[in-house]
Specification:
mainly alpha, DNA polymerase, domain 1
Length: 117
Amino acid sequence: MLSNAWELYDLAVLSNCCKQSQITERGRWKNHIRPFLGKKMVKDISSYDLLILRRRLEKKGLSPQSVHHCLSLIRRVMQRYVEWQKLETPLPSFKSIMPKFESLYQILNQDRISPSI
């Protein structure tokens, strides 16, 4: 189950991160990911499941960047779990599911490139 993968990730990866990162990532898991995907088997999670989760997060009012962070966390957890368990499970594609957004860096660079009128 994805919950099992999360527990391993939390123990092996998050425990080595700074306290604020641990709090943030655990909050994403507890509030947004676990209720929808926590009981699904890693091998059974499809791109469609991820797309539905994305839509639910957007309906909750999460920003595109917050949705991106949640989906990125799922991707990292699944990748590590498959690696650690030596599973032959193909992971779903996240590329078309990730929301598009402009970072502050991109916005500031556009302002520098575009002449103001």
